[in-house]
Design a protein that fits this description.
Elements (H helix, E strand, L loop, with lengths): L2 E7 L3 H12 L7 E7 L12 E5 L7 H10 L7 E4 L5 E2 L3 H8 L5 E4 L2 E6 L2 E5 L8 E3 H4 L15 H7 L3 E4 L5 E4 L15 H15 L15 H11 L5 H15 L4
Parallel strand pairs: 1-2, 1-4, 2-3, 6-10, 7-11
Antiparallel strand pairs: 4-9, 5-11, 6-9, 7-8
Helix pairs in contact: 7-8
Length: about 260
């Protein structure tokens, strides 16, 4: 199966480069492609056979509409779709887990993921963590956008869960949700006026983001320090054999050449 990962960003250079590195370090990279969908006025660029970039500055919409636009741009040959967050981290076996576990289900997610409130603080949490989900392409491409008006992300997530179509497996966590680096988390804005608030926040990000590079040339981040901090932070919280498995997988990923 082929999996297309869809990463939206407002030109946020640092997280985009880290998220890009996470994709390129995946053990199942040969089965994946990545779309980088940029809404910042400075166009982004990256040359790699498995990565494509679409620049559409100024396109309005709340998060669900941006997700939908990325679905419109998704690789038509993909069997699976994964919205790939620009400000979170994916461990090198994440795509492999997605491919192995979704089977005949409409969607799959790991039961637990890492929640990080600082560079040294990590907790395993059973949480929706939408950034960890993968969908069957034929299913999510048909998901109606008009349902669940009070849900602040793409309604496919809620539709799938309520219909009992989501498979969940408890295995070594492969997704890290980060809350500590000061980037604006658009999906956190709720309330009765959330669509307009999301739109204004995204517009402000596009105009006011200072984490940019004027030539727009993306480069995969060196994640050595990030993974070192992660391993130190989780060591007291997992069994020794699990920690060693995390370490060994990350060492193999660090040796990978883009």
């Amino acid at each position: 199966m082929k999996i297309d990962c869809l990463m939206g960003t407002c030109g946020r250079f640092t997280p985009a480069c880290e998220s890009l590195a996470c994709f390129l370090q995946q053990s199942a990279i040969e089965d994946g492609t990545l779309l980088i969908y940029n809404q910042h006025p400075i166009p982004l660029k990256f040359n790699h056979p498995r990565v494509r970039v679409v620049n559409e500055p100024g396109r309005a919409g709340s998060l669900r509409h941006i997700r939908q636009r990325m679905l419109d741009l998704a690789n038509p040959g993909a069997d699976l779709i994964h919205w790939w967050e620009d400000d979170d981290l994916y461990l090198p076996w994440h795509l492999e887990d997605c491919l192995d576990r979704i089977k005949g289900h409409a969607a799959w997610k790991p039961f637990r993921s890492w929640y990080s409130s600082s560079r040294s603080d990590y907790d395993l949490c059973a949480h929706p963590f939408e950034g960890s989900w993968v969908f069957r392409a034929d299913y999510v491409l048909k998901a109606p956008l008009s349902t669940h008006a009070h849900y602040i992300d793409h309604p496919a997530y809620t539709q799938t869960g309520q219909a009992g179509l989501l498979a969940i497996t408890d295995l070594r966590a492969s997704y890290i949700y980060r809350w500590y680096d000061g980037w604006s988390h658009v999906a956190s804005f709720g309330g009765s006026n959330w669509p307009a608030l999301q739109e204004s926040t995204l517009a402000a990000l596009a105009k006011g983001n200072t984490d940019v590079r004027q030539d727009g040339c993306l480069a995969p981040a060196n994640l050595t320090a990030v993974w070192r901090d992660f391993l130190a932070g989780i060591r007291p919280k997992v069994a020794a054999a699990d920690w060693e498995a995390y370490r060994d997988n990350l060492e193999r990923a660090a040796a990978h050449q883009y």
